[in-house]
Protein: TetR family transcriptional regulator
Organism: Umezawaea tangerina
Amino acid sequence: MAPPDPADGTARRPRRHDPDRKARILDAALDVLVEQGTVGITHRHVAARADVPLGSVTYHFASLAELQAQAFARFVEQRGSEFAALFDGVRTRAELVDVLVDLVHGSPSRHRSAVLGFELHLAALRDPGLRALAAGWTRSSQEVLARFTGQDDAARLDALLEGMIMHALLTTEPRSREATRTAIARTVDPREQGGSRATR
């Protein structure tokens, strides 16, 4: 059989235009990180999750380390914007505490973010590039908190939140919202003994 003649319209179809493929691969890599951790990041796993050919992953990312690093960078960019947006309507310390309690006792989407955050910090222990990414994320988060608390208190509050979120992920006996509220309120304002203050 003769090969298709481009002139008669039977030539091989052009490759499908898929401008969002790289972003979809990165999102798939994040899904794999949530479900399996960094050990689950393989070209095949990510390609299957993104529903793309294996060659698409290796075309866009020269190595698994590059794929993982860019996936984490995408997560930090997205999560940084989401975190800042949580405080858009906050005007009082009471409202600040409400937002932070919800952050600890979060929805499934926030659970996903928490898992990714801890996967990033764990991977950053052995990867200087990821360590710089994690450190930048911490600085930006503390800058958001510092708008309400000042820089020193923001650092303490950030550390408290990370610890409480980790405990919420791991515990078999969840902490009550009221206990969480009291701990956060006392960090936001050390003078507070029973709950959050009504005004800043």
Notes: The radius of gyration is 22 Å.
